[in-house]
Amino acid sequence: MTNRFGVMEIQPYKSFEPLCLGESTRDDCVTAFGKPLQNRTNSEGIEEFHYPHFILRFDREKRVLQECTLIPRASATIDDIEITWDYAFLRQACSRDGLPRDMHGFIVLADLGIAVTGIHDNDDSQLAITVFSEGAFDDLLKESVPFDRSMLD
Question: What pTM value is reported for the model?
Answer without folding.
Answer: 0.88
